[in-house]
Structures are given as structure tokens and as C-alpha cells.
Write a structure and sequence with these properties.
Blueprint lengths: L6 H22 L5 H17 L14 E4 L5 H11 L5 H5 L29 H20 L11 E6 H5 L1 H12 L5 E7 L2 E2 L2 E2 L8 H7 L3 E6 L3 H13 L5 E6 L22 H11 L10 H31 L1 H11 L7 H6 L8 E2 H15 L3 E5 L3 H4 L18 E3 L4 H14 L3 E7 L7 H10 L4 E5 L17 H6 L5 E3 L4 H13 L5 E4 L4 E2 L6 H4 L7 E4 L6 E5 L3 H13 L5 E5 L3 H5 L3 H7 L6 E4 L8 H4 L4 E3 L10 H7 L4 H13 L1
Parallel strand pairs: 1-2, 2-3, 3-7, 6-7, 9-10, 9-11, 11-12, 12-14, 13-14, 17-18, 17-19, 19-20
Antiparallel strand pairs: 4-5, 8-15, 16-18
Helix pairs in contact: 1-2, 1-3, 1-10, 2-3, 2-9, 5-7, 5-16, 7-16, 11-12, 14-19, 16-17, 21-26
Length: about 675
């Protein structure tokens, strides 16, 4: 990037960015002008003098990534994307926050328009960026050759005090420093203002010391001085061995005569009068929604340089392909998100479908087969791998001196882990997973929700799925968690009931490119009745008939741990001449996507229905109707062996049989 611009042109471009955001927010009568005004200088320096990108080829693999972690400053990003030549038009700017507009209140993931992720929940951007940086290190270690650096770019993130107060930012920064992610740069908009007022109301820590202690390279610059900003960002870009943070001292609402430095401009438009005063103070004599041609020309040159670098990369890859054809073939396969068509055969080849096995253990076996046959597969656990069986045996550990490792030790950092898994999925080339206990999924709910909102292939593994965790007691026994996860739109939840269903849950997740998947696994052993590969393939439709009856008196729906005991109870009733069809429904979401004809064939209208799932009953009543029943757990559990809990709460085969008879008697 050319750094040779006049101070006059620098000022003109900074004001163009600033006032485009101000005008959009004023017109919408909604938004956050303070941050865009305070961050315009750093954003201008980054986008015009440092960052590599090509608006005509937004998905160029070696582009620098930019994440606006404080998504409330979306007006800044939209202004940058418009001026730099992405697909954000002036009409889009004028329709900020309006129905049907691509310029929503917080940026929503759309690489074609230059938006690398959906932001809004503070802290999510900085943590997701760590996942992106991890992904780049993994991809670079896999493919780069001497003279052929296919991947050698940076992940740039702008953030504020709000981002860094959220707990996940501590978790993410700690891991980034530990992994020495020197491809990661935070630009900290340090304006000491939050919604309630001065940050001194609630914050007194030294951010520089915090990041230094986490192993980061720390600089502090004047956030309204172009030369100081350029020096600091360039130093960060060139620094090796550590992630970088540039603490930019800024003023919120910079340039506003009456609102600069005040919390009032954080979340409210300046208004026409204050905007006019601000423009007058800056010597800005243009109409609203105007970008001077000189500024467009400046960014056109930047885009031209980006296009040349993008084209040079294409040439580099063509040469790479000629010299390293097998590696290039692997690159294409991984970047396309391809899953081998015969992966199911590879997975089932070594699975024991007869031995009673906890689904967490079955999942562990499936993970070994996936990893051996899918190079893009990578993940780990929040310090629970021995418990949730997510380690890849012989896969090596992902760490600062081995970015080729397949096992990521996220540490006890569930919130950041969820975001980092999302960052790897967003980066491309990898199919990532992260694991913890189901009871701890609440820590990362924000990240799971964002994955669903963005429609990305993140896989979340949650083991220890019910009160049958046993002696650990109510703190570790999930109740509402499965039902709660099912409430998230565009999230697929699987709770498999045997080893074969566990394998199919993974196969569905790997091929579920447009949405995240949660796989919910048991600690206790599951029986394998009717758990053949052929029968369990119905799991790919979400729900299917496991065991039928010649005359169906009752349809019993079950998931997970309750499937085998429900089958046993049905067999006991069958001996009494009562016909029970047992339906396994490992995924409600997938079942509901099936045709009406298929759903009717599984759950016929008019048949009395009952559900057995050892968790909250919410959500199941739509399947059973007014004359059916749902048996679950709508209270906390207790500390006792799993077998005792099953008996006391009526979830052993005898108890389930009694509930079936009770339902039939109504």
C-alpha cells in the first residue's frame, strides 16, 4: 500500500468516512455515531495504507481479514465498504437499519460484501478473530512451501473497552498469547466511554499490562494522528512471535463541538443541528451523503493495488499447482469443504454396533475415523477431552511449535472456544469442533447462536447429557439445556440413542454446510437393540421407526439414553398383547424438514403418542397432541448413581412401561 498521501487528503478521507456514518445514522434516527467518529482515523490508515484486500475478489484466500468487533459501529464499516468499492451502494448507506437493507444495525456475515463475520455481542469479534488466526496458522503449516507462501496475511480487529470487559476476551487473549499468534492484530479504540458514562465508573485495570502478561506485543498511539497510527499498525504487522495490540487513544464522537467525549453520542444520533456544527468545525462543505471524488480516487488506487496482489496470488497458485499437484488437489478439496462420499464406510468399518457403549465413547471412535480420512477436520475440548472422548489419537497437539497438530487444547475457556470454533469455520478450509459438558453449554450459547445466524459449519459436542451423569449431582446434570438449544433457529441438534445413530449424527454434521450442529452425548452406556447400520440410517431423517408393531396401540418417541429402555418396555408390553411402535427421534429439526408424507408414515394421525426424554419436556407437546403425554425431567436432579436415579425418577424400563400403560389407560 502506498503511504504517500498529503495531510489534506488524509483529512478529507477521514471526514468522508466519518460523515457518511453520521449521515446514515441521522437519517435512520437510530445508531451509534460516537464510535465511527472516534475510529475513523485508525480505520482510514488501516484500509488505505496497510491492509491487503481486493473488492473485486472479496474471497481472495490470502486477503487480510477485518473484523469490527464492536458491531454497534457498523456505520463505520459500511462507509469503508462503500468507499473502497465493495457492493455497498450509496442507496444502501441511505437505507441504514431499514427493512430489507444489507446495512443492518450490526454487521451480518457476507464475504461478498466484505463482511467477514456477524458481530454485535461484545467480545465475540475479538474471540472469533483468534479462531481465524488459528485457522490461518493451520492452513499455512499444511500448504506453504519455500518460495510458495500461499497464506501469509493478518487478522485485524477493532475493539473497544466493552469488548475487552467481556470475559470471553480474557479467555481468547490468553489462548492467542499462548499459541503465539503473530498474525493477529487488535486495534483498541480506547476512548474510556461506555453507555452509562466514563469507564472509570466500573474499570480501573491497566490494559497494557493485561495483554503484556498474556504474551502480547503492546503499543500505545495517538488514535487521531495518522503518522502515529501508521507507525504503530506497521510495527504490529511486522512483529513476529506474538499477537499485537495497538492501544489507540481516541475521543468518542471526535470533532463534535458538544458531544465529543460524552456517553450521549454512544448510542444516539447527533441530530441535524449537531451534525451541521460538527461539519462546520471540520470545514466540511459537502451535502449529506457525499464522498469527494478525490477520496473515491484514493481508494480506487488502493483497490487497484489489491487486485494486482490478488492476481499475483492466482499466478502463484498456478505455479504451486504445477509443482505440487497433490498438495494443490488437497487445497481445492479442503477449501471447497468437501467430505468424502465413502466416509460412512470408513466410519462404520471399525465400529462395534453390538456392545453396550456410551455415546461419548462411540463418538470418540467415530472421531478417529473422521480424522484419518478428512484432513480438514480439527478440534478439541475445554479441558475435558478424556471425559468427552474428543482427542484424536496420534494427531498431535496444536501449539506454537506445531500448528499441524489436530488436537486443540482450548483450556477451561468454553465461551472463547465457541467463538474460536466459529472463527475457524469462517476462515475456510477447516471443519472444526469444540467440546464440553452439556451443562456448560450455557457458557457458549452466544457463540452457538451466532454460528446459527451466520449459517456456518461449526460442530459443538456436548457430553454428559442428562441426570445420568449421576454422582456429580445437579450442578453437572443438564435439565433444560437440550430443549433450550432446540429453540435456536437454524441450529441442528442430535441426541443419538446408540452407536450407529452417533455415527450418523457426525455424518450429518459434517455435511451440514449451511448450519451448525450440536451433538449431545451420554456418559452412561447405551444398549444397541435394533441399532444396525441399516435401521439407524433413519437418523439422517431426524426420526424413524426403530421397532414396529403389527397393530399400533401406542407410538413411543424416544431419544438418546431413553431409546433402548423404551424398546425394552415396548417388548414387555408386546408380551401382553399391546402393540407399541418405537420411534427414535435423534434430531427434531431434521425430522421437521421431511415431507408431510414421511412424517405421517412415522407418526400417524390418530395414534396415541408418548415421548420419553430425560430432560425438560418443553417442545415435545406438538408431536403428541392433546391426548398424548410427555415424560421428562422438569426439575433438578440429585447426586446418586445413575441406576438409582433411573429407578427413582421412573426412567428404567419398568418405569417407562408403567408410563406407557398409564398413557394407554387415559
Amino acid at each position: 500500500m502506498s503511504n504517500q498521501t498529503s495531510a489534506k487528503l488524509d483529512s478529507l478521507a477521514i471526514n468522508a468516512i466519518k460523515f457518511l456514518a453520521v449521515d446514515a445514522i441521522n437519517k435512520a434516527k437510530s445508531g451509534h455515531p460516537g464510535a465511527p467518529m472516534g475510529m475513523a482515523d485508525m480505520a482510514y490508515v488501516l484500509w488505505s495504507k496497510v491492509m491487503n484486500y481486493d473488492p473485486k475478489n472479496p474471497a481472495w484466500p490470502n486477503r487480510d481479514r477485518f473484523i469490527l468487533s464492536g458491531g454497534h459501529a457498523s456505520g463505520l464499516l459500511y462507509a469503508l465498504l462503500h468507499i473502497s468499492g465493495y457492493g455497498i451502494t450509496m442507496d444502501d448507506i441511505k437505507n441504514f437499519r431499514q427493512w430489507g437493507s444489507v446495512t443492518s444495525g450490526h454487521p451480518e456475515y457476507d464475504v461478498a460484501k466484505g463482511i467477514e463475520m456477524t458481530t454485535g455481542p461484545l467480545g465475540a469479534g475479538v474471540a472469533t478473530a483468534v479462531g481465524m488466526a488459528m485457522a490461518e496458522k493451520k492452513i499455512a503449516a499444511t500448504f506453504n512451501k519455500p518460495g510458495f507462501d500461499l497464506v501469509n496475511h493478518k487478522i485485524y480487529v477493532t475493539c473497544g473497552e466493552g469488548d475487552l470487559m467481556e470475559g470471553m476476551s480474557y479467555e481468547a487473549a490468553s489462548l492467542a498469547g499462548h499459541f503465539k499468534l503473530d498474525n493477529l492484530v487488535y486495534l483498541f479504540d480506547c476512548n474510556e466511554i461506555c453507555i452509562e458514562g466514563d469507564t472509570h465508573l466500573t474499570l480501573s485495570e491497566d490494559f497494557a499490562k493485561r495483554f503484556e502478561s498474556a504474551g502480547w506485543y503492546v503499543q500505545t498511539v495517538d488514535g487521531h494522528n495518522v503518522e502515529d497510527l501508521l507507525k504503530g499498525i506497521t510495527n504490529a504487522k511486522n512483529h513476529t512471535g506474538q499477537p499485537s495490540i495497538v492501544i489507540c487513544r481516541t475521543t468518542i464522537g471526535n470533532g463534535s463541538p458538544n458531544m465529543a467525549g460524552k456517553a450521549g453520542c454512544h448510542g444516539s444520533p447527533l441530530g441535524a443541528e449537531e451534525a451541521a456544527l460538527t461539519k462546520k468545525e471540520a470545514g466540511w462543505e459537502y451535502d449529506d451523503f457525499t464522498v469527494p471524488q478525490e477520496v473515491y480516487d484514493l481508494f480506487a488506487e488502493v483497490a487497484k493495488e489489491g487486485a494486482a496482489k490478488s492476481a499475483a496470488w492466482d499466478k502463484l497458485f498456478a505455479d504451486y499447482k504445477a509443482k505440487f499437484p497433490e498438495e494443490a488437489k488437497l487445497w481445492d478439496s479442503m477449501m471447497s469443504g468437501e467430505v468424502p462420499a465413502d466416509l460412512d464406510d470408513k466410519i462404520f468399518a471399525d465400529l462395534d454396533l453390538e456392545k453396550a457403549t456410551a455415546s461419548r465413547a462411540a463418538s470418540g471412535n467415530v472421531i478417529q475415523a473422521i480424522s484419518a480420512n478428512l484432513p480438514s477436520f480439527i478440534g478439541g475440548s475445554a479441558d475435558l477431552a478424556p471425559a468427552n472422548k474428543t482427542d484424536v489419537k496420534g494427531g498431535g497437539d496444536f501449539e506454537a511449535d506445531n500448528y499441524l497438530g489436530k488436537n486443540i487444547h482450548f483450556g477451561i475457556r468454553e465461551h472463547a472456544m465457541g467463538a474460536e470454533v466459529n472463527g475457524m469455520a469462517l476462515y475456510g478450509g477447516l471443519i472444526p469442533y469444540g467440546a464440553t459438558f452439556l451443562a456448560f453449554s450455557d457458557y457458549m450459547r452466544c457463540d452457538v447462536r451466532l454460528a446459527a445466524l451466520m449459517g456456518i459449519r461449526s460442530i459443538f459436542v456436548f457430553s454428559h447429557d442428562s441426570i445420568f451423569v449421576g454422582e456429580d449431582g445437579p450442578t453437572h446434570q443438564p435439565i433444560e439445556h437440550t430443549a433450550s438449544l432446540r429453540l435456536i433457529p437454524n441450529l441442528t441438534v442430535f441426541r443419538p440413542g446408540n452407536t450407529a445413530e452417533t455415527a450418523y449424527s457426525w455424518l450429518y454434521a459434517l455435511n451440514n454446510a449451511g448450519a451448525p450442529t450440536c451433538i449431545i452425548l451420554s456418559r452412561n452406556n447405551l444398549g444397541q437393540k435394533y441399532g444396525t447400520r441399516e435401521i439407524a440410517k433413519g437418523a439422517l431423517k431426524g426420526g424413524y421407526v426403530v421397532k414396529d408393531a403389527a397393530k399400533v396401540d401406542l407410538v413411543a418417541i424416544a431419544t438418546g439414553t431413553e431409546l433402548c429402555t423404551t424398546i425394552e418396555a415396548a417388548e414387555a408390553l408386546e408380551a401382553k398383547g399391546i402393540g407399541v411402535r418405537v420411534v427414535s427421534m435423534p434430531s427434531v429439526e431434521v425430522f421437521e424438514k421431511q415431507s408431510d408424507e414421511y412424517k405421517e408414515s412415522v407418526l400417524p394421525k390418530g395414534a396415541k403418542k408418548v415421548v420419553f426424554e430425560c430432560s425438560a419436556t418443553a417442545g415435545w407437546y406438538k408431536f403428541v397432541g392433546c391426548d398424548g403425554a410427555v415424560f421428562g425431567i422438569d426439575h433438578f436432579g440429585a447426586s446418586a448413581p445413575a441406576g438409582v436415579l433411573a429407578e427413582k425418577y421412573g426412567f428404567d424400563a419398568k418405569g417407562i412401561q408403567a408410563k406407557m400403560e398409564e398413557c394407554l389407560a387415559k
